[in-house]
Amino acid sequence: MVALGGAWFSARSSRRQALLAHELESRTTQQDLMGRHRDPLLWAAFDLQSRLYNIVDRGFLRVYFRDGSDRERAYARRSTLYVLGEYLGRVEILRRGVQFLDLGDSTLNRRIVGHLTAISNVLNNDGGGNTRFLDGHFIVFRSDQRAIGELMLAADGISCLGYVEFCRRLDEDAEFAEWFGPLSDSVEAVARAAEVPYRLIALQHAVLDLIDLLDPRAERFPDHRRSRLGRPPER
Fold first, then answer.
1. pLDDT tens per residue, range 206-219
2. What is the DSSP secondary structure assignment for residue 105, as one 8-state letter?
3. What's the pTM value of the predicted model, to 2 decimals?
4. Cβ atoms within 10 A of the Cβ of 109, count?
5. Which residues, 6 or more positions from 161, have their beta carbon under 8 angstroms from its beta carbon?
């Protein structure tokens, strides 16, 4: 009886240790996957909001596109298209990584999806629900958002095109460039417009909301680098 009792206790302890080890390994894997998806999305979102801020507050497109040299004009167009394309690419990668939605805090995951939807809504708004969006610049309808996201994926399917490859394809691949045609037209129109579109302000606020969620303690991007444009947009 003593021997049987010892064997039972030993087996139970071993099983408990195995379960604890499995739980620890699972949590570590979850954290790795969360970081793998979250951090690149966070950087892409920050680059996008930074460009939006510079366009609206610093006159980036007026300085470098309207009044700049040919080289500066090409940079202003390409880099603006790239930061938006990279963000949509990161969202597409996240969408394809379905396992992400089952990891960690489900409440946090729902909030992330909610913010991604809010950003998508700003890009998709054609003015039907808010007359401030009637200018027509930088509209990207939902299916086009996904299409651009797919085009931005590198061959491995888990990373985005680098800037050099993006520029090469924009110049040499007519089908690829066609998807960015309306956005390219918007870059030129905004550079020459008397006022910047309200959509860019609303978009910057929505992207910053996502950044605040992904980096709540401002560990990667300090608060002084998160300046918001104008008043909070009405939604």
1. 999 999 999 999 99
2. -
3. 0.83
4. 15
5. 85, 86, 89, 152, 153, 154, 169
